[in-house]
Amino acid sequence: MNTRANILKEQWDTLKKNNPGMRIRNAAKELNASEMELLATQIGNSVTRLEPDFINILSEIESLGKVMALTRNDECVHERKGIYSNPDFSSPHAGLFVNPDIDMRIFLSHWKKAFAVKEQAGNIERKSLQFFGKDGEAIHKIYLVPQSNEAAFEQLIEKYKSENQSIEETTEPYLRNMDERLDQEIDIDEFRKGWKNLKDTHDFYALVKKHNLSRTQALRLAPDEYYAKPISKDSIITLLEKSAEQQLPIMVFVGNKGNIQIHTGEIKKLMRHQNWYNILDPDFNMHLDMDKIAQTWIVRKPTEDGIVTAVEVYNEMGEIIVQFFGKRKPGIPELEEWREIVKDLK
């Protein structure tokens, strides 16, 4: 029967034969499909569909021991190894893992499908749990590492295996609203006053929403250059190199609609390869596509603990790619060394 899934399956098999190392995300783009649709064509072989019981599945990931958490958007990949302890799904707005290694903010309203995957990568079988949004884009993936508990992984699959093991998959696109309000329609003075009176960095999102601004428009309309200043994208490399040199602990936030993943700590091994700038440490990797960066800003927000300084990176759609901060916690002022590094960026 020539269903879309069967045709996709054949097309992908052919593509894999001709390009053995091709990643599924790139194959999906080439075949004009979503990654989730391609993955589903392997159900019954290397893939098992799971029930979308996300809170319970995530609450049991700790049983796997040390794993690798992967969250990405189109421009940046964030990989962090650690243990999924302290799950908190008590808030209707966001689920949390708050740990020194696995640190995430989870927006479950965007999580739609779950799969367990066992794929051959050379001589190695890579095992993972993969979660997708309604558009078929990956929200979050959890990969087993050599120290992981494989028996617990098998038990999870058995427990949450869906009765529906069909290879058919449907997706629904997100509609992107790229319209910005005209500057003259905005009460700019009121917005700027609100920015200067912020008490917490998290309140900035509510302020931008209240004035119905896009994020990059908000930065453009900042009170002055102290609060938001555009800088070159190559400043990101300077920022990371100086942080590594000074062994300064930083925070790296990367996310998509359904998940934000955070690394806190020192970074050591930095490397540029073609258009990708990489952090390649034993427990933390970041891969940032420098060619897809449209805007980079220094952003300062007042809080009860003093000013918090971020370097924020955006794509051409005005969507946030990655944010960098100095290591900090509520109640503790940000590191002076971080401020010094950022103030010299151009």
From TrEMBL:
CDD domains hit by this protein: HemS-like_C, HemS-like_N
InterPro entries on file: Heme_Transport_Util_sf, HemS/ChuX_dom
Coiled coil: none
Gene3D superfamilies to which the protein is assigned, alphabetical: HemS/ChuS/ChuX like domains (3.40.1570.10)
Pfam families: HemS
Transmembrane domains' residue ranges: none
Biological process terms in GO annotation: iron ion transport
Domain Haemin-degrading HemS/ChuX: 33-160, 212-345
Top-level taxon of the source organism: Bacteria
Protein name according to UniProt: Putative hemin transport protein
